[in-house]
Amino acid sequence: MCQGSLTYLPLFKQSLLIGLCSTIAFATVSIRPISDSMAITIKEFTGSITEKTIKELRELPETPHTVIIDLQDNNGGNLHDAVAFGALFVTQNTLIEFTQDNGEPLLITRPINHPFLSTKALIILVNETTASAAEATATILKHHPNHLIIGKTTYGKTNISTKNTPTKYTGMNITKIKPDIEFEWPTTDKEAQYLTALALRNASK
Asked: The pTM is what?
């Protein structure tokens, strides 16, 4: 089996500090404090989500105890960005396996110098429309030793589209992501969802 590494993503030396009462929002990502934790909501991977996350979280005055990563209704997007984002939160060398256009598997490994954002726990939120590159992210985040997946089983889109971004990969050798806790949210309010997710995690210990 051959192996391939992600393109090196340089560290951001001058990160923007944010207070714990702030909410940082972009078109496809928002970062907000929730209790003593932090929630990152990603609607789509656009090719810049990883950079924006590093910029806002790298030099926080204190490390959030738990990071909630919301991939609900995320249909995918830029595959490299999705893999690079997932690799921010794990230290395991092997990340995910792709299928190349020649039919051979390619194991994607974590570059030695890839940025790392330390957190004691991860909560990953998924649902039936979490698909494609977002499922790749969830697969990688499962390497975190203290992760918890909450929600509904994901869509299961393993083929890789080359319509907008030409790539030598044709598929991902992954399965649908099944939650550790299957849960139907009683509200669409994000803050309420995140507080509930933290309560579910505490109850599952």
From this structure: 0.86
